[in-house]
Amino acid sequence: TEFQAPCRTKKYPREIPPLPWYRRTIPQMAMAGFLPFSAIYIELYYIFASVWGHKIYTIYSILFIVFIILIIVTAFITVALTYFQLAVEDHEWWW
């Protein structure tokens, strides 16, 4: 069978409005890296202090909790930034 589009296509593409500075690529990349890093920074400090101070790191339960927090924060940031990118409705944005 032949494909029938559900609606007519327009002759002229829709204009894409300009984005504010915080919705562009570089600030979003910085935010996507900074927020997960800030979630684990304190725990990384204690791990590096124990390695460089020749001590034994013994708080593995806290490390596991921080790892779970890192996964949750990373998943949330990924979903949020993908939503923000798709909400712009930029038809020229390539995947």
Automatic annotation (TrEMBL):
It comes from the Eukaryota. It is found in: Endosome membrane; Golgi apparatus membrane. It is a multi-pass membrane protein. InterPro entries: EMP70. The keyword Signal applies. Pfam families: EMP70. Keywords: Endosome, Membrane, Signal, Transmembrane, Transmembrane helix. GO terms for biological process: protein localization to membrane. One of its GO terms (cellular component) is Golgi membrane. The chain crosses the membrane at residues 29-48, 60-86. Belongs to the nonaspanin (TM9SF) (TC 9.A.2) family. This is Transmembrane 9 superfamily member. It comes from Nymphaea colorata.
